[in-house]
Each structure stands twice: as structure tokens, then as C-alpha cells.
Amino acid sequence: MDILKDCDIVVDVGAVYDPSCHRYDHHQRSFDHTMNTLNQEYPWTVKLSSAGLVYFHFGHEIIANILKLPVDSEEVKILYGRVYENFIQEIDAIDNGVKPCDSEHKYDIHTHLSSRVKRLNPSWTETNPDETKCFEKACQLVEQEFLDRINFYGKTWLPARDIVKSAVQNRFSVHSSGEIIDFASGGCPWKEHLFELEESLKVEKPIKFVIYPDTVNKRWRIQCVSVAPFSFENRLSLCKEWCGLQGEELNKKSGIDGCVFVHMSGFIGGNKTREGALQMALKTLNPE
């Protein structure tokens, strides 16, 4: 291991974590750092892998350079947290054997980034495999996905925040209950923003429904707000008796003209007009 002393940067080997000389390993017995232990402003408590260590020290600069933003900007601060929570954190957890939950899984996921990288290892049946070539393929895979997430959050996700904030602030103009918001310009990545904005804007009555135009089909959609960003449980699902119905059958059952469909689970529906979508929300809020 003497060769490591001559390296400019050492990652994931060497049993040393010392950013002053760019050593970023997490395998040593003494290592037990999380994002929170390195910076108490951060809430994440999953033990860091070398990926998380490198991200902790260089993530702000990387994001700023890719998106051409000032490194100390509020945008970079928000994106740094988002990329860690939704990309790097699971790499840290999987590398350290941290399960996503304490209960028994109903199924396992085998298509996450870590498993796809693992599949690039040479097969045990290969003779004289080119390990360097396999490593380079893995680097390309991870780089592409990492850049994709940064560009998504920076160019698609973050710009939606102002749209969601405006919709939340104007919710009482949609209906006096304040439980319906309208994205008049079309759908956008709204879920995570909504939960954060409800808290920061001190929304007292949780928002139940989102309506927005389906610009492709020139119709309107109504979507239920889930109890958490990645939950399949809704705060309030569309009327149970509508679920799985379409067209005229749904019109008759609901008493609302222009209905297109309601999903079997009741989390989303469609109507030909904005007024129709709004009525679907109101009838669910106030069933007769």
C-alpha cells in the first residue's frame, strides 16, 4: 500500500479518512461518520461510504460547475441536499449494508445503481477478464446517472418550486376550502415541493387535490395528494364508487359531465374541462 502515499487523491481504499491530504476511505474500524456528524446542519444519519465522503467535500462545487451557478447560491444549497437525499444517500446505505426499513420487504429492488454497477464485474466463468475495461464501463454508467440527476434537479425540478409556491398561495382563489390547487400552465414536478412549502408557508389545512391541464390530450387531470412524497396512500382518494369507471358510465355515477376516467385506485382522474375536474374534487371533499 506504499504506492498510496504518492497519490494525489485516494478513494475507498487505504483505511484513512483525512480530507487535508485527500484520503477518503470508510472501511477502517474507527470510521462512523454521517452527513450529520460532519455538519450538524444536515439531517442525514446514514453512515457514509466513500461516495458520500467525496460528495460531502466537493458536492457544492460540482453542482455549481455543472449548472454554472455561484457556489454559495441558495440554488446550489437546495440542490446539494436534494441530490444527496435522492441519489448519494442510497449508495452510502447499500455500500454499508443499511436496510431501507426494519420490517420485512414484500419485494426487493435489483435495478438500483449499485446493483447495475455490481453486474459490470467480470463473470466468474471468464478467463483473463479485462477488469480495467469493466471499471471504465462502471465509471461511465455512474457519471451519466449522476449528471442526469443534477441536471434534472437543477433544470426541471427546481424551476417548478416557484410554480408550486404560487399555486399554494393562490389556493383560496380556486376554492374557499383551500384544499385544491391549480397548475393552470400544466403539470410539473410538484409533490416534494408541496410538502416542503406546506410546512414553510404554515398551511393549516392540508391540500387534498391538484388539478392541471393535460396539454397532450387537451383535457384536465385531477390528482390526489399522497400522505408523503413517495407514498401510495392518499390524504383523500377520489370517490370509491367512481374507481375504475370511464366516460358515460362515470358521468352517470358522479353526476358530473365530461368525465374521462378515474383510476382503479382512485389516485387520479380526468375530465374534459377544468370545471369538470374541479367538480370531481369538490364532490369528493363534500360527498352527498
UniProtKB/TrEMBL annotation:
One of its GO terms (cellular component) is nucleus. Pfam families: MYG1_exonuc. It comes from the Eukaryota. Belongs to the MYG1 family. This is UPF0160 protein MYG1, mitochondrial. It comes from Araneus ventricosus (Orbweaver spider). The lineage of its organism: Eukaryota, Metazoa, Ecdysozoa, Arthropoda, Chelicerata. The gene is MYG1_0.
